[in-house]
Write a structure and sequence with these properties.
Distance between the termini: 143 Å
Radius of gyration: 47 Å
Shape: elongated
Strand order of the largest sheet: 12-14-16-18-17-15
Structural class: alpha+beta
Strand content: 15-25%
Helix content: 40-55%
């Protein structure tokens, strides 16, 4: 038979030729006559499925070779196709010759005829086991890739040729400040501010043009308005269909960057603290010489000269207070318990408080004109008030009219209000109460119980030590704290300090004339300080107090003198901070041989540096000190 090129029609091949072709096919062909329930098949059917009988075979014999779970589906598909006249296609598992089930695709059509329903079905059975396995492997690969992308702690993304995001995970959306659905299909210009978008687009273009991996670190402003610091690594993804795409990993390092900056800031503050402490110490040494010389000059001055000296001593006192603030900043503050007038002290702090608040809240101060005294260091009191006011401002930010009130009053004894929590040492004595009140939303009870815990904070910034320092400072002054909070009504923190009546007030002239007249002592004193002016001044002051004085300007020289003549001295005065051999070394040397010899330790730093060494025979004197303070200290050691 001659076959011409072109499309074959149903008349081009006879039955024998068609059967010859079917025998060559790897696909199985069968015909089912539903009127006689007979099935005929090609040889390939036997290689695909087993169990078919030679000769007469019906549809049930074929269905018996179908997996039980798929049998009902195939039966329904045949029936529905017969009724509708539509092509049937279904994937089922059939038993192979080796009794193993394999996947096949069964498809076919019913031959049109006059009978209804149609009676002859022409079917094709194709093995799809390899296809199924490939699809399963592909699906598994896709699932693994999706799992990797979804669980990756970095933001994973890929962009199409039009620079729109086609693949991304939730982390990438979080970094962009949006939901994942909002990120997909969008360009960087739709997700970030113009400056950030240009930077990202420039990096994308460089990756495509250079074909290299690129990485950059910087801040991005997200769609939600947040600022984040990211490390973004991009790389080319070469595909046959779409060309070169851009893939990438973005890591949010905002918290690490903030931690690094805080660490650097802490290091800077620590360095500044060391510098401030050193300056304060050295300046206090200089002030000690100024104060000592001025007091030595008082007895030799006339009326106007005494006034000038009084002004000089007053200025030196203010300079010393400034040094104390530097030491407070350095964490080496001087806590000198003295009586202060609380209302007067508070009124003097108002300008500083208003400046610190920066207009974020209105400050109202209510305090009487009376002299309500309490035993507390002025610098410590300032720290307590400042911490409480700043916390009150933070608590009421967001209120329509942010207001912070400070109220001072006097309580005869006990608490006159209901409080949620209190930290009071003695409720029976008369107390001065300083209350700081805000008009914020208040605090729940479980927070009130913890606000004074060290390192506890409800704020994202800060150390959590502010209120802990407040409680420590109040307790050191013999006082306590009470907290009252009302939901949507604000919080009141009340500080209670024991009231201390005012002593008789001496005039400047009385102070100056009385201080150089200490009780007379007999004995020999050794003064050791690396500042020659200080040893000279102290030698003169001690001489007026009745001591014969020897001085040393070197700790090493003093150590040799003590080794040879320690028993010659009735009073030892050591500066704590000296090169090579310091005051601590000299104290240990003296105590080893004379445990009860009176020793005065002096420093421009605080008492905390030497508190463990203090006892009934060893006292601390903070520079600069007055002649009166020196005389009182000597009386305590050598009455």
């Amino acid at each position: 038979m001659e076959v011409t090129p072109g499309r074959l029609s149903e008349h081009d091949l006879d039955v024998s030729e068609l059967w010859a072709l079917l025998k060559l096919s790897v696909d199985g062909v069968f015909q089912w006559d539903s009127s006689t329930d007979e099935i005929h098949w090609s040889p390939a059917v036997h290689s695909l499925i087993g169990g078919l009988r030679e000769g007469h075979c019906n549809i049930e014999h074929l269905l018996d070779q179908v997996h039980p779970e798929d049998r009902g589906r195939l039966r329904r598909a045949l029936r529905e196709s017969q009724e509708s006249g539509q092509r049937m296609a279904i994937e089922v598992r059939m038993r192979r010759l080796d009794d193993v089930f394999v996947w096949v695709r069964a498809q076919g059509v019913w031959r049109p005829g006059t009978a209804r329903p149609m009676q002859k079905f022409l079917g094709l059975i194709v093995s799809i086991t390899n296809e199924k396995q490939s699809r399963a492997e592909l699906q598994l690969e896709q699932e693994r890739f999706r799992a990797f992308v979804d669980h990756c702690p970095a933001g994973v993304y890929m962009k199409g040729a039009d620079r729109r995001t086609i693949v991304a995970n939730d982390k990438a959306a979080e970094i962009a400040g949006c939901e994942l659905d909002d990120l997909l299909g969008r360009t960087c210009y739709e997700m970030f501010d113009p400056e950030t978008a240009r930077k990202i687009d420039d990096e994308d273009s460089a990756v495509i043009s250079e074909g290299l991996v690129r990485s950059w670190t910087g801040q991005v402003a997200t769609r939600s308005g947040e600022s984040r610091t990211i490390v973004d690594t991009k790389f080319p993804v070469v595909t046959e269909e779409s060309g070169t795409l851009v893939g990438g990993f973005a890591i949010d390092v905002t918290e690490q960057e903030n931690t690094r900056r805080r660490a650097e800031s802490a290091q800077r503050l620590e360095s500044l603290g060391l510098l401030a402490g050193g300056i304060a110490h050295d300046f206090n040494n200089l002030l000690a010489g100024v104060v000592g010389n001025a007091e030595l000059a008082v007895p030799h001055a006339d009326g106007s000269g005494r006034e000038f000296l009084a002004d000089l001593l007053s200025t030196a006192g203010r300079a010393s207070a400034l040094c104390d603030q530097l030491l407070l900043y350095a964490g080496r503050d001087i806590v000198l318990e003295e009586r202060i007038n609380i209302p007067a002290q508070l009124r003097s702090l108002v300008p500083m408080l208003e400046t610190t608040m920066g207009g974020r809240a209105k400050l109202v101060v209510e305090c009487p004109d009376a002299d309500l005294g309490a035993p507390i260091d002025p610098v410590r009191f300032q720290q307590i008030v400042l911490n409480l006011v700043l916390n009150a401002v933070e608590a009421c930010i967001g209120s329509k009219q942010c207001k912070v009130s400070i109220i001072v009053d006097l309580l005869d004894a006990g608490l006159e209000e209901s409080v949620e929590s209190s930290w009071l040492l003695d409720e029976s004595a008369p107390m001065v109460r300083i209350s700081v009140r805000d008009n914020g939303e208040g605090m729940p009870a479980h927070l009130i119980d913890r606000i004074f815990d060290p390192f506890f904070s409800t704020k994202t910034e800060g150390t959590g030590l502010g209120l802990a320092a407040v409680l420590g400072g109040v307790r050191s002054a013999g006082g306590g704290i009470a907290v009252r909070s009302i939901p949507d009504g604000g919080t009141t923190v009340s500080v209670y300090l024991p009231r201390l009546d005012a002593p008789p007030v001496a005039s400047v002239g009385d102070e100056l004339t009385s201080s150089p007249a200490p009780a007379k002592h007999r004995g020999r004193a050794l003064v050791v300080d690396d500042e020659p002016m200080l040893t000279q001044v102290l030698g003169a002051l001690l001489g007026r107090a009745g001591f014969d004085t020897e001085t040393c300007n070197s700790g090493t020289e003093a150590s040799a003198l003590l080794a040879a003549r320690l028993d010659d001295f009735d009073l030892l005065i050591f500066d704590l901070t000296m090169p090579e051999t310091n005051g601590h070394d000299l104290l240990r040397q003296a105590r080893k041989h004379r445990p009860a010899v009176p020793v005065i330790l002096c420093s421009g730093y605080s008492e905390q540096d030497v508190s463990s060494a203090l006892d009934e025979h060893t006292v601390f004197l903070h520079k600069p000190f007055s002649n009166r303070q020196l005389n009182e200290t000597i009386r305590r050691l050598a009455p």
